[in-house]
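Hi X.,

You mentioned you wanted examples for the new student's onboarding notes, showing what a folding record looks like when two proteins sit in one file. Here is a clean example. The first protein comes first, with its sequence line followed by its structure tokens.
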Amino acid sequence: MLNQPSPSLETSLPVTPADVRAAAATIRGATIVTECNESRTLGGILGCRVWLKFENLQFTASYKERGALNRLQALSPDQRRRGVVAMSAGNHAQGVAYHARRLGIPAVIVMPIGTPMVKVENTRRHEAEVIISGATFEEAGEFACAHARTHDMTLIHPYDDPLVIAGQGTIALEMLEAVPALDTLVVPIGGGGLISGTAIAAKSVKPDVRIVGAQAGLYPSMHNAINGAQLPTRGDTLAEGIAVKVPGRITTEIVRHLVDDIMLVTEDQLERAVSMLISIEKTVVEGAGAAGLAAMLSAPERFAGRNVGLILTGGNIDTRLIASVLTRELAREGRLTQLAIDIVDRPGQLAAVAALLAEASANIVEVSHQRTFSVLPAKGTLLELVIETRDRAHLDDVMARLCASGFKTWLPGRR
């Protein structure tokens, strides 16, 4: 549990509720007041009531344009003429690029190597100059700062800026206006801009609202900063939008005082959350945007009986990655499985296996015979199948039928 604020401490923070209300007035009409709808299906699964804030339906498919626009509107005429620089793994880039073009402000966006191509191309589509530099977000940030100094441009930080934080906080104002009964908000954390703005706005409207952060387990930077921990930050995460090694200075101060808890989520949990939002809500959400749901799935008992708001922060995800996530989830559920079967190399064996699978109501997706590169005897053949089944119990029944008929069957890697 994190420290709870006193009223005097809250007003001394770098961003105030008045700043958030001012941001709401600044961006009104230029960003979408997205729907905040209840998901009865997710609520039934999680044992609570759940409302989803569909920020993936903003024009740039992310909430980031709120903070970007609020910051851009504060530029002086001379700053607008000289232009802006931003570093981003994608969503902040698009928010800055889109609104900078709309306002006639030149924009340079620095993106780290490995940024999903959908985010790179969408940023270029908004006519910003894109520079790919740095193996990490932090390295891209160093390049962006140097570029801004060299070219006398204004840096638009993705999270450690009071105006950006205030802009992101407008989401919470909209959520509590739409659903005053909300008592818990679960918010993804990267650098901390969204959860900082959310906490300031939400607690100004409803002081006892509970703010819970959801952070990728591979990048627990804010968790480390708040709890004095030293968990490693490393690797490729599905939630690249919140893969930040060092949280913001301003945001860390706000989180320390206003956020109630931070939960870490695994890659499996992120994948499951993305898959569930597609299958249940018919909405596409990137890994970072699904982090809140992933946190709830990891420990539903912590939210039992509560009225929970989830912010679906963005929907910029490669279609290839969506396909991979969905098929991997089918495999975890036992609905899509690779089987290896030791059969005698003689006519009729494949037909016999196919007949058994048909009787068991399993569907064959792929078939491969392997005679040469196999450790089986010369008169044996390795038959590899990918099959579809209803669920794990159905898969177990199919396996049992094959083994009962004399076919030695195993799951590759588990023999």
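Then the second protein repeats the pattern, sequence line and then tokens:
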Amino acid sequence: MPDRPSARSLVSHCLWLALAWTLPGHAQPPAQAQPAVYAAAQAEQTPMLATLKNLVHIESGSRDYGGVSYIAQVAAERLKALGGEVQIIPASDVVRLEDTPEQVGPMVQAVFKGRGQSRIMMIAHMDTVYQRGDVDKQPFRIEGDRVYGLGVEDEKQGVALVLHSIAMLQKLGYDSFGEITVLFNSDEEISSPGSRRLISALARDQDAIFSFESGGLQGTLHLATSGIGAMFLDVQGKSSHAGAKPEAGVNALYELSHQLLQMRDLSQPDNGLKLNWTIAQAGTTRNVVPPHAQAQADARALRAQDFQALQDAVQEKIKNRLLSDSKVTASFELRRPPMQASDAARRIAAQAKAIYQDELGIPLHVNDVALGGGTDAAFAALNTRGGVVEGMGVCGYGAHDMYGEYILLDCIAPRLYLVARMVMALSEPATAH
């Protein structure tokens, strides 16, 4: 869910990074930074890059059951080595969506226990949108300040960042948190049909939930995400000879076209409600009146009630048919619920912003208005008492772009620092900003 900053803001952000965080081994801590945490973050960058290279070269498309099962094993082993109570959880409680594969990949859950009271959850996904063999077209590599690779931004950087943030805390001897729960899933890119319920269940009693999607080139934190839905139209007509006796048929394509045209005004962009028809099929043969037609639309909303209102509006529209003998049905599928910014999320984001700006001298943007994208953070936010913050991952760009997906090298150590310091701030409220 990367933001698209202006050229001026990008230049400004890069200058801040260059001034505040030079290459590891060559920087003095900024005046307000905690020296031990700063040094640990710098030291962890090279090991994290090695982990990231390994993860990128494991092909784990959402529908590649063997690939996602293997990367889950690798992640589980790393979490066990860090001392977590780890389990690989098969996707057994699956919400069957229109495009859900027969086998959905597993989840990896790990719990790290400290001696304090805070409960913090970290979520990231291991799957990508790419197909087996694609990694040969875009292997892991570093060019200047960019780290390229398939899935490197979306979101294997997130998996690596979680692993090495926990490693950092251990090397610092920090255990004042109560419990850190890690959940890696392998079906995010297909709307998380097998993991959404577990994400919601685990998030319920957390104080804070961090989701490790990239925040774009500026590393923006997101407190709100759009809900995503799919609308389906199905039209049943009657076939006949298109040349000899078309009047004996009921042209499903005509009816579908009528329905789509009368629904073109259902979007309300000012309110964040969008309905765009994107896929349609009709007909079998050129000289046969099509007996069946169907279409699918992408739907977006900022509030759950807007989806219900949209469904009601569509049901009302389909009562008006072009052909009285046609049969028109509509159905809706919720892919992701909307996430609205909560007061708890705003407080946590304010702490993060203060740490980044006051201790590192790097601006941190916080966005509490949904921009159209949706993530697993929304499932975490459904019933939790804690604040949910999206975009904790490494700055990057080009998600789903086979030749242009990358993260920024100079953002790795600051993000490691931020995650570690946020655990500390949430675990020791008296020292928080």
